[in-house]
Design goal:
- With 80 residues, the chain is α+β, with helices and mostly antiparallel strands.
- It has one helix and six strands, in the order αββββββ.
- A six-stranded antiparallel β-sheet has the order 4-3-2-1-5-6.
- A hairpin with a 2-residue loop joins β1 and β2.
- It is globular and about 35 Å long.
Length: 80
């Protein structure tokens, strides 16, 4: 296991988010993207669409996690 994989597993364990996967679609702060990596004890997401940039954020901050069919499987947004 690489250091990156280990850190990602630690995030999943610490925040009790066994569903997390690299490449998973998320809605973070109202924008859609895919999990592309980690940053400290947070996640890095590549925002898709016209803006095309990356952000780092806490895994439970204003985020909804989607399964492969686009269904929300976990939602940490305050205003849904």
């Amino acid at each position: 296991m690489t250091a990156r994989e280990y850190a990602f597993e630690q995030i999943k364990k610490y925040y009790n988010m066994p569903f997390l996967k690299m490449g998973m679609t998320v809605i973070v702060n109202g924008e859609t993207g895919v999990i592309s990596g980690i940053s400290d004890m947070g996640l890095r997401v590549k925002i898709t669409g016209d803006r095309n940039y990356s952000i780092c954020f806490h895994p439970m901050w204003e985020t909804a996690y989607l399964d492969e069919e686009g269904n929300i499987i976990a939602d940490y947004r305050k205003n849904k």
